[in-house]
Amino acid sequence: MPPKVPPLPEPSLGTIPAVTGGTPVAMPLDAVMTSRADIALLEKARELNAGDCMHALGFTTWASATLSAPADDTDVKDRDVLDYLSPADAARSGYPATFTDKSGGAHPGQNAAQASGGSTTPAGSDAVRAYLGAEARTASGRAVPAGGCEAAGDAKLKGSTPDLPADPRRLAARAIASTMHDSRMRAVFADWSSCMAKRGFSYRTPLSAQNDPRWGERTAMTLAGDDEKSVAAADAACEQETNLVGTYKALESAYQQELLDQNQAKLKTGRAIFDRWVSDAKAVIAAH
User: Fold this and answer.
1) Of 96, 159, 177, 280, which one is least surrounded by beta carbons within 10 A?
2) How far is the C-alpha of 92 from the C-alpha of 228, rounded, in Å?
3) DSSP string of the chain?
4) Are 128 and 121 within 8 A, CB to CB?
5) What's the rounded mean pLDDT across residues 7-28?
6) Phi (first) and psi of residue 143, to 5 degrees
7) Which stretches are tagged as biased composition: Polar residues (predicted)?
């Protein structure tokens, strides 16, 4: 089990801006953030390396897409946990599908095997066990590398530096976690919940409203029902009334700045490592 990360001290805040539109709010870690397009390149190269490993073990029909998750839209900017919700749009169409992951696909940080529910390869097959490292030898007696071909493909790409000294995406996630637990954010959540109660709805936070089981798994192709539209409209109105998103963004920015200040040197070193991974990934892809 990884060591528990100590909580960050609550930062001081200046003026909290009022967020009244969907324009993205710049964050301190934006300048050092790795792109999803580059992460997709790393994943593709890792799978190609893993495929070479599988072929060497005798699984000649193995393809890099055998356990792959659905393709991610790498041109879309990552959505934040809490973003502006238009009252007019919410009343008309309910929650945008982008507010929650309703695709059934993999999270950007989830590997292919974790999202392989639709794979045509049986989960208990010799090939899958070799890929995941669940067996030391294949049924034909060939030695499987430690961690399986999945791990071997990653190791071949990243070499002696399998991890970044500081990953900006992990720092951003830590800033979000700290923001959601901040006493000032919890106070605004309480105000928002009271606002919703006055409108006849019982929810603790906007996330619980957005992910209500009645519509939390609705696909983008399914129209919102009247109940969802009513909740979404009330949510949007209460978020504006309490300036919930403005407080969230201000706190997130403050936590990101703390983490950026603490990890400047590591982030610089990590960027050089990441850029080398991407360069090597392009070479792997070109060679295939």
Assistant:
1) 159
2) 10
3) -PPPPPPPPPPP--PPPP--S-PPPP-GGGGGPPPHHHHHHHHHHHHHHHHHHHHHTT-TT--TTTTPPPPP-TTSPPPPSS----HHHHHHH-S-GGGS--S----TTS-GGGG-TT-SS-TTSHHHHHHHT--SB-TT-PBPPTTHHHHHHHHHHHTT--S-SS-HHHHHHHHHHHHHH-HHHHHHHHHHHHHHHHTT---SSHHHHHT-TTTTT--TTS---HHHHHHHHHHHHHHHHHTHHHHHHHHHHHHHHHHHHHTHHHHHHHHHHHHHHHHHHHHHHHH-
4) yes
5) 92
6) -70, 130
7) 111-123
Distance between CA 268 and CA 274 in Å, rounded? Answer: 10
Residue-wise pLDDT for 149-198, tens only, equals: 999 999 999 999 999 999 999 999 999 999 999 999 999 999 999 999 99
Angle between helices 183-198 and 168-181 (to 10 degrees): 60
Residue 137's DSSP bridge partners are 143
Q: How far is CA 73 from CA 30, 179, 266, in A?
A: 19, 27, 29
Domain residue spans in the chain?
36-73+110-163+271-288, 167-262
Q: What is the pTM of this model?
A: 0.83
Contacts of 217 (CB under 8 A, 6+ apart): 102
**How many CB atoms within 10 Å of residue 123?**
12
Handedness of CA 55, 58, 61, 67 (dihedral sign): negative
Structure tokens at 209: 């409203």
How close are the terminal C-alpha atoms of the chain, in Å? 37
